[in-house]
Amino acid sequence: MASEDVKTSGSAVSTIVNLAEEAKLAREGVTAQSYAFSICKSLFAGGVAGAVSRTAVAPLERLKILLQVQNPHNIKYNGTMQGLKYIWRTEGFRGMFKGNGTNCARIVPNSAIKFFSYEHASKRILHLYQQQTGNEDAELTPLLRLGAGAFAGIMGMSATYPMDMVRGRLTVQTEKSPYRYRGIFHALSTVLREEGPRALYKGWVPSVIGVIPYAGLNFGVYESLKAWLIKTKPYGLVNDDCELSVPTKLACGAAAGTVGQTVAYPLDVIRRRMQMLGWNNAASVVTGDGRSKVQLEYTGMIDVFRKTVRHEGFGALYKGLIPNSVKVVPSIAIAFVTYETLKDIMGVEIKISD
């Protein structure tokens, strides 16, 4: 009888343990699925934010690149309005958005990876910082936010760099170019066949150097401004729930974009010029008579910097800065606000300010 009781008791305990294990596994499964779904929603929000922000300023993006690689001996336009009117007059509405399809194909994964990388890098850095200081309530400093943003920028840029290189060439070519790429995949295959795989990463080094202050300052300034506003609550810009209004977030994004692009812009010019190397039909190498060519010869990033300054002056490193400034102010602002708004709508738990 006692033996039966022991067996019954043992069976009951075993059943309880099994049920507990099954419940635990079920909870873990739900948690894993929920976390994976949250990641997907985060990536989706970042991708949509990038596409919306870049499409909104596509004409200015194209004008910036054309100004960066414009032949100094055959200047067709100098200012933003003059350049936009020239593109409209010579190529029409479609010319204003030339290369935007490639740009969106690049910026969607770039933006998704960048925002996602920043979220997780900032959380990891914050955890290490709290352990180091022994203060569980410690918050990220502006410098740490800049570091997380730089890491995110490098990850996003490196993953999509070949698309950026192709976008530059598609954007620069015109109706009068002797040779035209028919699209993204045609451009990729042509560059691979004629110039080799390394050509897809021309200008990668200055891009990495440039993305560190650019992305770092974008995220660092934006997050630091938001944190400061929430903490100080000046001029009634923060509501009772410590939430910033959309116009205030747009202003923070505009300030972040302006600071970041001004610091990193010369490296963007160098990168773009290096991407044009090896392409004899780039619009920038056609001289005034429309027939002869001036072959640009650079041996590397330093050589591009030296020859650009020597032949065109230091100001050439900021060619296209004005249209880029006009572009960056709304672009970065729209990207940040779109990203955070979409995540609020979809109910994603992970927030870049957490």
Report helical residue fraction: over 70%
CATH superfamily: Mitochondrial carrier domain
Characterize the main sheet: none
Order of helices and strands: HHHHHHHHHHH
| Number of β-strand runs | 0
Shape descriptor reads globular
- Content of β-strand: under 5%
Structural class: mainly alpha
- What average pLDDT do the residues reach? 80
Number of helices: 11
Rg calculated over all Cα atoms: 26 Å
Identify the CATH class: Mainly Alpha
Extract low-pLDDT stretches: 1-9, 283-295
CATH topology: Mitochondrial carrier fold
Instruction: Report how far the terminal alpha carbons are from each other.
Output: 60 Å
CATH architecture: Alpha/alpha barrel
Give the tally of structural domains.
Answer: 1
InterPro entries: MCP, MCP_dom_sf, MCP_transmembrane
Pfam families: Mito_carr (PF00153)
Solcar repeats: 37-124, 140-228, 244-345
Subcellular location: Mitochondrion inner membrane
Task: Characterise the protein shown here.
With 354 residues, the chain is mostly helical. The protein has one domain: Mitochondrial carrier domain (Mitochondrial carrier fold, Alpha/alpha barrel). Helix content is 72%, strand content 0%. It has 11 helices and no strands. Helix 1 runs antiparallel to helix 11 and helix 4 packs antiparallel against helix 6. The longest helix is centred in the first third of the chain and has 55 residues. InterPro entries: MCP, MCP_dom_sf, MCP_transmembrane. This is Mitochondrial carrier protein.
